[in-house]
Amino acid sequence: MMRELAELLARLPQAPAALVTVVRSAGSVPRELGAWLAVFGDGVVLGTIGGGHLELEAIERARAALAAGPFEPEERRCALGPSLGQCCGGVVWLRQERIEAAHIEALRTRLMPATRPLALFGGGHVGRAIVRLLEELPFAVRWVDSRDEVFPAVLPLNVQAEHSDPVQAAVAELPAGSAVLVMSFSHAEDLEVIAACLARQRERGDLSHIGLIGSRTKWARFGHRLAERGFSQAELARVNCPIGLPEIRGKQPAVVALAVVAQLLALGLAPG
């Protein structure tokens, strides 16, 4: 929903919209609390509350309310049964309200999903592919590289680019609970970032995951060098290398990125 939220905030200065939000639910329902969609007068619909007749009816009601002029917020109970053409069996309560440019900052805070901090070291092809996937997922991404010129001019709402030289210096400032993915342009930089992560784990133990791109051979070499620096086998075992679900095979950046992000989700590293 990050892309839809960015578009919503960009469009509001030009025209108001009707916002429909799931504010309560009971039983089996298609979307979680806080799910939303926005309807503009030109017919553009952003976001989703679960599809089907529930969403179709909500869009029609929102369009009618918007066309009639300013309106007060209202909540409506919707049973997901035969009368609505859906068989989920649950009940949702939808809030409909008019939003405009004056609400942009409040909406940015309110509609931004809960996120888990993730640090991505490396702005290469795989890093860019991972950022594209994470744009739609509940991660707050800190994207770090020693080369300032590698970052795109426009970043997703949930991504913050950071130039750090030396690159490993950024590790100390990561939020507690961060997952870390390491894939810089240089094996030497990768080694220093991993060493910094392990040092932080020894001191604070507050990184949720450390992943390193590369082969088993690369990790064997890294493990030897890190052991020479005094890291124990138990400490080295905290590094996941190679990264990515092994069932997803392929070396194209998009495929590697998919395997890596799928592993993050499989490990439960995204907010529920």
For the largest sheet, list the strands in their spatial order.
8-7-6-9-10-11
Number of strand elements: 11
Number of helices: 8
* Percent of sequence in beta strands: 15-25%
Shape: elongated
State Rg.
22 Å
Average the pLDDT over all residues and give the rounded result: 93
Remind me, CATH topology of the largest domain? Rossmann fold
Tell me the name of the CATH class of the largest domain: Alpha Beta
Q: Would you identify the regions where 5 or more consecutive residues have pLDDT less than 50?
A: none
For CATH, the homologous superfamily of the largest domain is named as NAD(P)-binding Rossmann-like Domain
Overview of this protein structure:
The chain is about 35% helix and about 20% strand. With about 270 residues, the protein is of the alpha/beta class. Helix 4 crosses helix 8. The protein is built from eight helices and eleven strands. The strands form two sheets. Strands 8-7-6-9-10-11 form a six-stranded parallel β-sheet, with helices on both faces. The chain folds into two domains: about 110 residues, no CATH class; about 150 residues, NAD(P)-binding Rossmann-like Domain (Rossmann fold).
Short description:
With 272 residues, this protein is an alpha/beta fold.
